[in-house]
Automatic annotation (TrEMBL), chains A, B:
Required co-factors: Mn(2+); Mg(2+)
Record domain Isopropylmalate dehydrogenase-like: where: 2-349
Natural source organism: Evansella vedderi
Family of the protein in this entry: Belongs to the isocitrate and isopropylmalate dehydrogenases family. LeuB type 1 subfamily.
Primary enzyme class: oxidoreductase
Protein name listed in UniProt: 3-isopropylmalate dehydrogenase
Primary subcellular site in the record, as a coarse category: cytoplasm
Residues annotated as site: Important for catalysis: Y139, K187
Alphabetized Gene3D superfamilies for the sequence: Isopropylmalate Dehydrogenase (3.40.718.10)
Pathway: Amino-acid biosynthesis; L-leucine biosynthesis; L-leucine from 3-methyl-2-oxobutanoate: step 3/4
Encoding gene, per UniProt annotation: leuB
GO molecular function, one term: 3-isopropylmalate dehydrogenase activity
Length: 354, 354
């Protein structure tokens, strides 16, 4: 299997090394061959190539079986013009590779749940998956520009029916593999795009008779995620709503540093990245938490390579290491756990695998 | 003072009666004259006049000094076509009256804080004001329509620089009256409209040297509201971000049934409504909580009539009644408080005022 690594900026490079080590351990144990090649994206690509997404990066990803991405961005590039911002690389690669479905599983780790901002009885039992449309909507629509001599501005939320259908299908399919409940989030009382979205969900229902469907308005969803997150199984929504709600959901279980994500297209190809960012404040200190990146690699094993056992072993390893009380500086562990750095944490996961 | 009452649907009519009684008590005590006239909006207006916003309603509001609105909507009208949905009445009246600034203060009541989904040490000290742009952006932009034979759909997020300037000014002014911290929320790493928004905030800074300004991306704001709500004083943002974030924020303190809102234009005219909806499930039972509506009337006394003492008295009355343990069914009170209905609750507030 050909894997392209895009470490990106900040702690991205540090946690990417960890993922590679873990994948090498899996390859050894299960007799697989993973080959890695590394390319630039984000700020580092701006510095080296003058663009956040060099053509050779895109080309390499297109040839690969899967892509792992660290994180992009940092204060160094914050005042750059639009086309020279690290985030453009991220938006660009998603679009170029057709990664329309962003999966963000959110589940608490028992050892970390006490660090949740929510009361224990509120967050207890939460285990949800947000399926976010990733290549359409307001973040990609045109026009997106100043008008009238800079006196006004416009962005465009555009979707084709096909784009809505394929992400809604993905939502239903994910629900079928889980607890069979789909929550579709929209603003159908105001937006025309949401009305079409809701129509598509209603049409598709018949194809997935085993799945229970509910519609929730985005403002209500933002409330319910806090008051009763355990009510949700799979939540499917368009790009911007998904951006906001998935970040909101990511802090519920007290495990932000632990959350992986998968960005998929129709076939088995995918890009996998941690939900956390490039954390410029702690970059280069060897203290970054590599577990979200490692769990992203596990998602890759599962979704792109269909290596269920291997993925499960990685997930068990992470859980076991946490259960033993090992934690990185960002994790708030009860009792006298042992604080470790990025390398040691990676080593512990690798040891468990071997 | 001429006050137009728009009770609307569901519990809207019940809580509007309460507000009127409280305002009458204030008028008696302080020797003011408030005259009330009632008009239809929302579902009831659809039923009676075939439109969610009859012209006579708009005309009456334009003549008035302030407007109180109950709530609109209900399952009866949920499947109506767009232009015959109760929410259109709400969007329409905001636009017609030029109510560009929606103020949503969120502060916990000590007696209710235990009902917060957040841990006490997380929510403690939270006292924020969300200033939401209310008449521009994605909910009003055109085109908002199906295209290509229904195979695609588009909504438009449009702002003029002027529209951004006036709401940003409002945000700064609110911050000056409070703890002097302004958090501007945008998605400037992706949206052109957010870039202009951020530019305007940066330009305006100099005019309000006593206010500290920070920029937070909307996805990060959705997280921070949960992990550390007490860090915020005034949050200013565009329409849709404000819709989502203010609803998210409304559940943090366990007092959703208590939250008022004000929708203002440049002069002192305003429309005041509770944050909660029409609650069709409990309508007509006499158990609705009238306090958010009563507190909305207090906001009217303050913002539209500049009657600070009168407004403070209403707020103290509400607090006192709660402190005595009286509560409606929706409120989760510690210990053996006494549960009362809408009428009794109103009476208690009125008694305190007299
Ligand atoms: C960096 C930004 C463009 C990106 C997004 O909003 O899509 C990020 O917030 C994310 O959620 O992956
Ligand atoms: C009913 C709806 C149109 C409205 C809005 O989104 O503006 C409501 O959610 C609100 O926040 O007042």
């Amino acid at each position: 299997k050909q894997i392209v690594l895009l470490p990106g900026d900040g702690i991205g490079t540090e946690v990417m090394d960890s993922a590679k080590e873990v994948l090498n351990a899996i390859a050894d144990e299960f007799n697989h061959t993973f080959t890695f090649s590394t390319y630039d994206i984000g700020g580092v690509a701006i510095d080296k190539h003058g663009t956040p997404l060099p053509d050779e990066t895109t080309a390499a990803c297109k040839e690969a079986d899967a892509v792992l991405l660290g994180a992009v961005g940092g204060p160094k590039w914050d005042n750059n013009p639009s086309h020279l911002r690290p985030e453009r690389g991220l938006l660009g690669i998603r679009k170029e590779l057709g990664l329309f479905a962003n999966l963000r599983p959110i589940k608490g780790f028992p050892t970390l749940l006490h660090a949740s901002p929510l009361k224990e009885h509120v967050v207890d039992g939460s285990d949800l998956l947000i399926v976010r449309e990733l290549t359409g909507g307001l973040y990609f629509g045109t026009p997106s520009e100043r008008q009238n001599d800079g006196q006004s501005v416009v962005d465009t939320l555009a979707y084709t029916r096909k784009e809505i259908e394929r992400i809604v299908d993905k939502g239903f399919q994910c629900a079928q593999l889980r607890r069979k409940k789909l929550t579709s989030v929209d603003k159908a009382n105001v937006l025309e795009s949401s009305k079409l979205w809701r129509e598509v969900v209603e049409e598709k229902k018949a194809q997935y008779p085993d799945v229970t469907v509910e519609h929730v308005l985005v403002d209500a969803a933002a409330m319910k995620l806090i008051t009763n997150p355990a009510q949700f199984d799979v939540m499917v929504t368009e790009n911007m709503f998904g951006d906001i709600l998935s970040d909101e959901a990511s802090v519920l279980t007290g495990s932000l540093g632990m959350l992986p994500s998968a960005s998929l297209r129709e076939d088995s190809f995918g890009l996998y990245e941690p939900v956390h960012g490039s954390a410029p404040d702690i970059a280069g200190q060897g203290i970054a938490n590599p577990l979200a990146m490692i769990l992203s690699a596990a998602l890759m094993l599962k979704h792109s390579f269909h290596l269920e056992n291997e993925a499960n072993l990685v997930e068990s390893a992470v859980k076991a290491v946490l259960d033993e009380g090992y934690h990185t500086a960002d994790l708030n562990i009860l009792g006298n756990g042992q604080k470790v750095g990025t390398e040691k944490m990676t080593e512990l996961v690798v040891q468990f695998i071997k």
